[in-house]
């Protein structure tokens, strides 16, 4: 079953097909819209008129005004179709219905509704007079034009004077209609999520390092994925990189691991390069476990060798370590509290536990973009589009941007995308509960 996004996409592509005069393709796309609204039927009618098939156009405009009985421009175009079929009395009736829907207004501007056309009362009366001429009602046509002239239409006085002169000479009038190629376009707000977005560019590396407290005997396999320019692949999730024996993972250690492909020196060696009094007094050292999770961009020449690629990745990760969002996890707590300032870090030191686990920190970031806050998924969300971010109930997501009132842009496990706000709650307010029926993802697009 097609989603609302699929239908809007077909509508948009149909409009583009009309613009390039691919009428068969346009009709196919408009017809693919499930339960078409009045605007789609109107578009189909206009395309049939362009194709020279007024009978099919009449059927489409019938559907349009049935769906929207106040659609003045629909009655106007149905009158055009009846006129072309030489059903002049029906045409006069349609133009009268169009005039009635104007509700004594001089015009209706459809631009804000997606149609670049302004239906004016004098044009409706002009077409009514044209149909009356074809029906042989010349006196009635003259009266209709006089009525149109009495409305003092802007910029049309000369046109109406000429038309009245023609009618008095019993010369037929040229019919007016919506300009060829003008159709209703989908609302702009419907189009904003249609185009897939590659947030990381053409060439990028997606990698992360996340410590695993359950593994203290060795180094797990580190994985990274490189996407070269001109090639695309699904978003990847970088796996875990640990500090040896659960200790800190310094910049130098990260660089060593990436540059050489081997573990850095063990805890007995000074791999941090910090030195100073703290290094001389082991009793003053505190074990700081830092979970690192980054998404980084990397531009590399094609066919770059492995060692050069690792060096570039190490440089990118060092940058990410500086711009990532540091957060603190208190013992026994489940959620992370951001550390945005020096004062907040000193407060963390004062409150840090002296137990064997030491200080628990987290450093997260996506391409240097700041993390506004974190949310937790209340329900599973399956991606409906390439630009969506999927997750499972209980997952923590970094919020990078508030797209609008209903959507957020987030980062999780090396992937960036948008997701509905109603599927998540702020991290500090999440409470475990029995699974219940969640929102329907299809209703969000």
UniProtKB/TrEMBL annotation:
Membrane listed as a keyword: yes
Organism: Mesocricetus auratus
Chief location bin: membrane
SUPFAM superfamilies assigned to the protein according to its UniProt record, in alphabetical order: CAD & PB1 domains, SH3-domain, TPR-like
Pfam families: SH3_1 (PF00018)
Family listed: Belongs to the NCF2/NOXA1 family.
Keyword Thylakoid part of the UniProt annotation: no
One cellular component (GO) term of this entry: cytoplasm
Name this protein carries in UniProt: NADPH oxidase activator 1
PANTHER family, A to Z: NADPH OXIDASE ACTIVATOR 1, NEUTROPHIL CYTOSOLIC FACTOR 2, NEUTROPHIL NADPH OXIDASE FACTOR 2
Region (Disordered) location: 210-245, 258-280
Domain SH3, residue spans: 370-429
UniProt record, GO biological process: superoxide anion generation
GO molecular function per UniProt: superoxide-generating NADPH oxidase activator activity
Keyword set, alphabetical order: Cell membrane, Cytoplasm, Membrane, Repeat, SH3 domain, TPR repeat
InterPro entries documented for this protein: NCF2_NOXA1 (IPR051864), PB1-like (IPR053793), PB1_dom (IPR000270), SH3-like_dom_sf (IPR036028), SH3_domain (IPR001452), TPR-like_helical_dom_sf (IPR011990), TPR_rpt (IPR019734)
Role, per record: Functions as an activator of NOX1, a superoxide-producing NADPH oxidase. Functions in the production of reactive oxygen species (ROS) which participate in a variety of biological processes including host defense, hormone biosynthesis, oxygen sensing and signal transduction. May also activate CYBB/gp91phox and NOX3.
UniProt feature, compositional bias: Polar residues: 216-235
TPR repeat intervals: 38-71
Compartment annotation: Cell membrane; Cytoplasm
Domain PB1: 287-366
């Amino acid at each position: 079953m097609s989603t609302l996004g699929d239908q809007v996409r077909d509508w948009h592509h149909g409009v583009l097909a009309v613009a390039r005069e691919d009428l068969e393709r346009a009709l196919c796309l408009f017809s693919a819209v499930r339960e078409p609204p009045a605007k789609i039927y109107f578009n189909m009618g206009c395309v049939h008129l362009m194709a020279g098939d007024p009978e099919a156009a009449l059927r489409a405009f019938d559907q349009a005004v049935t769906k929207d009985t106040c659609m003045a421009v629909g009655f106007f175009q149905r009158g055009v179709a009846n006129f072309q079929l030489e059903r002049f009395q029906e045409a006069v009736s349609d133009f009268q219905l169009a005039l009635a829907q104007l509700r004594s207004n001089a015009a209706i501007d459809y631009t804000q509704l997606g149609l670049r056309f302004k239906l004016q009362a004098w044009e409706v009366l002009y077409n009514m007079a044209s149909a009356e001429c074809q029906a042989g009602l010349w006196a009635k046509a003259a009266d209709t034009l006089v009525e149109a002239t009495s409305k003092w239409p802007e910029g049309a006085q000369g046109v109406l004077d000429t038309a009245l002169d023609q009618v008095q000479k019993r010369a037929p009038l040229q019919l007016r209609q919506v300009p060829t190629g003008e159709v209703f376009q989908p609302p702009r707000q419907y189009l904003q999520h249609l185009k897939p977005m590659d947030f990381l560019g053409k060439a990028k590396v997606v990698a992360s390092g996340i410590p695993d407290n359950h593994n203290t005997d060795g180094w797990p396999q580190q994985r990274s994925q490189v996407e070269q320019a001109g090639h695309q692949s699904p978003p990847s999730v970088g796996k875990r990189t640990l500090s040896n024996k659960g200790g800190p993972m310094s910049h130098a250690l990260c660089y060593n691991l990436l540059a050489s492909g081997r573990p850095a020196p063990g805890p007995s060696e000074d791999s941090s390069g910090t030195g100073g009094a703290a290094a001389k007094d082991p009793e003053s050292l505190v074990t700081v476990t830092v979970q690192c999770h980054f998404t980084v961009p990397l531009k590399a020449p094609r066919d770059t060798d492995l060692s050069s690629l690792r060096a570039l990745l190490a440089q990118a990760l060092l940058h990410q370590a500086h711009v990532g969002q540091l957060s603190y996890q208190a013992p026994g707590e489940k959620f992370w509290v951001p550390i945005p300032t020096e004062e907040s870090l000193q407060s963390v030191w004062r409150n840090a536990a002296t137990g064997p686990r030491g200080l628990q920190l987290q450093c997260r970031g996506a391409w240097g973009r700041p993390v506004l806050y974190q949310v937790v998924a209340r329900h599973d969300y399956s991606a409906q589009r390439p630009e969506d971010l999927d997750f499972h109930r209980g997952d923590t997501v970094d919020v990078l941007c508030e797209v609008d009132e209903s959507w957020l842009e987030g980062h999780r496990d090396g992937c960036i995308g948008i997701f509905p706000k109603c599927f998540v709650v702020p991290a500090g307010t999440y409470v475990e509960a029995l699974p219940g029926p969640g929102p329907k993802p299809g209703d969000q697009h």
